[in-house]
Write a structure and sequence with these properties.
The chain is mainly alpha-helical. It is built from 15 helices and 4 strands. The strands form 2 sheets. A two-stranded antiparallel sheet has the order 1-4. The protein has a two-stranded antiparallel ribbon with strand order 2-3.
């Protein structure tokens, strides 16, 4: 799902939740099975951004559905490249948090406390927790966010977009990343029925021998209970299944992934199976495609830049960097215009992919992603030296080991020489004593 499609989905879900909250005398558990959300246009959504966006925000489009999300991703990407966001950017995000610890997609009037009509969600909260963890100086705000996420965990161990909504692979994967970022043990974060987030993720995993999408993750079961492959959910399931956050580093590439139906299915195995599905999907064109819009099944598929970037991050993090190399090259060649059109979150997704694969985001297919992202928000507090890539870090480590080995060898040689000198000296002393005698 591209960044734009994510915003539409978040907006629709937020509107549906808001409508449900406006019904009086309805218990909160009624949100567990929300009706099919109406489109933002049908609900009279704002036609454009507010006349004046709050100071400290990234982007210029209406923040109603993605304000906290794009703010969090933008600052996460900056920290990945050693850029410190402006204080105004951090303060804007902190101001969005409710006393409960939850974050809404956007709260225009932060002078009023959150109440039952404030539409908070797990995706905004999980993203905010991850950047608060990266900033390291706001532990109370981060822990409050984690506490709220724990309080709305579903009985199956997972999370839906909003509190009480059925679990989905994307939200569950995001929250796992937030827990990992905050140092909260994921495997022991059990629901009221003793189920872990990893167990919840496994329920969306499609068996390898399935006729369609073997190894993939579904977003949710469809109305008939069938699991349908979803590339966005698979990338989230892969990253969540190995307990990683949005901003991570790649590991030494190994053999390509294979799909195996194990019983019982472990979270690690489900994640590796998801990797095999993504590799096959990417092998066709070097990128993922957007799912066809209703009524447009016969039209040519459109490339999905955002999901391709997410897949590159997930695959490289899991040790499949070789399989992610071609999609990464495709992103470098084809994504500059997409990111410019879609703004801060899109630039952030590309920076995440560059960071994970040790690609220079300042020379990304002729575009300086860091400079472009910085220009979408307040001027950074400071810009540090370019961080070393993973390859450069490994090279520096190897040089340190070689230098240490060489120094040890030199010390050994010097020790032997000193011992030999002492022996020779002792011989001369003995001989001199004998002569005197």
């Amino acid at each position: 799902m591209t960044t734009v499609r994510r915003h539409v989905a978040r907006g629709a879900a937020a509107l549906a939740a808001a409508a449900a909250l406006c019904v009086t005398a309805v218990p909160s558990t009624a949100l567990a099975t929300p009706a099919t959300p109406a489109s933002p246009a049908d609900e009279g959504a704002p036609a454009g951004p507010p006349a004046e966006l709050p100071a400290g925000m990234y982007g210029t489009t209406d923040p109603a559905y993605d304000g906290v999300w794009r703010q969090s991703l933008a600052m996460l990407a900056q920290r990945a490249v050693n850029v410190m966001p402006a204080d105004s950017a951090v303060n804007w995000l902190l101001g969005q948090q409710c006393d409960s610890g939850a974050f809404p997609a956007y709260r225009p009037d932060t002078t009023k406390p959150c109440d039952a009509t404030t539409v908070v969600d797990t995706n905004s909260t999980a993203a905010a927790v991850q950047i608060l963890a990266a900033l390291t100086t706001y532990p109370d705000a981060m822990n409050n966010g984690i506490s709220w996420l724990a309080s709305v965990q579903n009985k199956d161990g997972g999370w839906g977009y909003s509190a009480g909504a059925p679990s989905d692979a994307n939200s569950t994967g995001l929250v796992i990343g937030a827990l990992a970022a905050g140092g909260a043990p994921v495997g022991t974060r059990l629901s009221t029925e003793g189920r872990s987030p990893y167990q919840a993720l496994n329920t969306f995993a499609i068996p390898c021998d399935a006729k369609e999408g073997g190894g993939a993750f579904a977003y949710q079961p469809d109305k008939s209970g069938k699991l349908l492959p979803n590339a966005d959910a698979t990338a989230a399931g892969l990253l969540g299944g190995i307990g990683k956050r949005m901003v991570t580093t790649g590991v030494e590439p190994g053999p390509g992934p294979v799909c195996q139906d194990l019983h019982p299915l472990t979270p690690e195995r489900a994640a590796r199976n998801g990797a095999s599905y993504l590799v096959k999907a990417l092998a066709k064109t070097g990128h993922l495609d957007q799912p066809p819009m209703p009524g447009a099944a016969d039209s040519a598929p459109l490339p999905d830049h955002g999901n391709t970037a997410d897949a590159v991050v997930a695959l490289t993090t899991a040790g499949y960097g070789k399989q992610a190399a071609a999609p990464m090259k495709w992103l470098e060649k084809n994504s500059a215009a997409w990111a410019k059109e879609n703004g801060p979150a899109a630039y952030a997704q590309l920076i995440f992919a560059a960071h994970t694969t040790s690609t220079d985001p300042r020379k990304f297919g002729g575009t300086d992603l860091v400079k472009a992202l910085n220009a979408t928000g307040p001027a950074p507090k400071w810009i540090g030296p370019k961080p070393l890539t993973t390859a450069e870090q490994q090279k520096a480590l190897a040089e340190q080991k070689a230098e240490k080995h060489s120094m040890s060898g030199n010390l050994w040689t010097m020790g032997i020489g000193a011992f030999a000198a002492l022996v020779i000296c002792a011989v001369f002393v003995v001989r001199a004593k004998r002569r005197r005698a």
